[in-house]
Amino acid sequence: MSQRTLTQFLIEQQRKEAALPAQLRLLVEIVARACKTISHCVNKGALGGMLGNLTSENVQGEVQKKLDVIANEKLLEANEWGGHLAAMASEEMETIHLIPNRYPKGEYLLLFDPIDGSSNIDVDLSVGTIFSVLMAPEDVSGRAVTEDDFLQPGRKQVAAGYAIYGPQTLLILSVGTGVYEFALDREMGSWVLTNERMRIPSGNREFAINMSNMRHWAPPVRRYIEECLAGTTGPRGANFNMRWTASMVADIHRILKRGGIFMYPWDAREPDRAGKLRLMYEANPMGFLIEQAGGMAYDGNHRILEIEPKGLHQRVGVVMGDRDEVKRVVDYHHEAGLTKQAI
Ligand code: AHM
Ligand code: MG
């Protein structure tokens, strides 16, 4: 059987499935091309002078890695001139990036985390790029795009995906018609379809959470994990496995492929902060993919894709993966009456 490339897949989607608009098709191809370039930079590592920290901090007050900034630049450069975007936003930029006047503007808004899991860069573990696509409001063509135009709930995303730079470089994509996986064929220079209509396998007893924060968790999260840890003699009557790579793309990718649950919940270290992960370019796109693959994505109490954002860099608690497991965590929150946990 002949291989299907990302380009072929997108053309098929444009013709048949959801009548994918031409501008959105172009957008996905350009983001995928930028991810190829970023993959190349990640692979070069020390040989290309890609490792290490800069002296700068991003808007979150985190020290930027060289690759954070390089990947951000690659995505901006690649997406500026195509005429498909109204503006961009990124984890690495305080405010939105407008399309320069010399280029035509399009009707989409692109958000990204250029390198997710940055702490893994220097130790050669998987990192990735996460992206989310929204439609710009209709009246935007006659005026300048503002940050408010981006503040739409995740259910309005028209596409989302991530690239994972691991032993293989993969692109996981949804344009709202299921989740598709493409592998980068370096000899051909193209993305080849390797998995279609992915579904999260149910019943895998595996959880992903940073256990070192256990003493700071809210009671429902603690209850869920304590029950898993109790194994065959506990209320779940089964042993659970644990995995934590500190790279959301890698943890979510594992869950997409073999099931389980991912959590980065609110915790009491910084009680006024809703969580560590960012809603607009981490939780929303991942939530979109997880739901498209039959899973659930909650902040503990609420469906992530329903949250009305108040800021570009807003944080959120994250509980996503296998429906049954996420539902259990949500039930524990509701039973505990924590319906107003900070969001
Ligand atoms: P980053 O986008 O700055 O890399 O931060 C997000 C990452 C996620 O990929 C990962 O799930 C989490 O931070 C790990 O955090 P911790 O080091 O607290 O376990
Ligand atoms: Mg990130």
List the main descriptive attributes of the protein structure presented here:
343 residues, globular, 7 helices, binds magnesium ion, Fructose-1,6-Bisphosphatase, Chain A, domain 1, D-Maltodextrin-Binding Protein, domain 2, alpha+beta, binds 2,5-anhydro-1,6-di-O-phosphono-D-mannitol, 8-stranded mixed beta sheet, 2 domains, 23% strand, 5-stranded mixed beta sheet
Concise overview:
The protein contains 7 helices and 17 strands. With 343 residues, the protein is an alpha+beta fold.
Helix and strand pattern:
HHEEHEEEEEEEEEHEHEEHEEEH
Heterogens: 2,5-anhydro-1,6-di-O-phosphono-D-mannitol, magnesium ion
Count of separate structural domains: 2
What is the CATH superfamily classification of the largest domain?
A: Fructose-1,6-Bisphosphatase, subunit A, domain 1
Gap between N and C termini: 48 Å
Main structural class: alpha+beta
CATH class category label of the largest domain: Alpha Beta
What is the tally of helical segments? 7
Strand content: 15-25%
Evaluate the radius of gyration: 20 Å
Strand order across the biggest sheet?
4-3-5-6-7-8-9-10
Description of the structure:
The chain is α+β, with helices and mostly antiparallel strands and 343 residues long. It has two domains: 190 residues, Fructose-1,6-Bisphosphatase, Chain A, domain 1; 137 residues, 3-Layer(aba) Sandwich (D-Maltodextrin-Binding Protein, domain 2). Helix content is 29%, strand content 23%. Strands 4-3-5-6-7-8-9-10 form an eight-stranded mixed beta sheet, with helices on both faces. Strands 12-11-13-17-15 form a five-stranded mixed beta sheet, with helices on both faces. It has a two-stranded antiparallel ribbon with strand order 1-2. The radius of gyration is 20 Å and the shape is globular. The model has no long low-confidence stretch (mean pLDDT 94). The site of 2,5-anhydro-1,6-di-O-phosphono-D-mannitol has 13 residues, from strand 5. The site of 2,5-anhydro-1,6-di-O-phosphono-D-mannitol (AHM) has 13 residues, from strand 5.
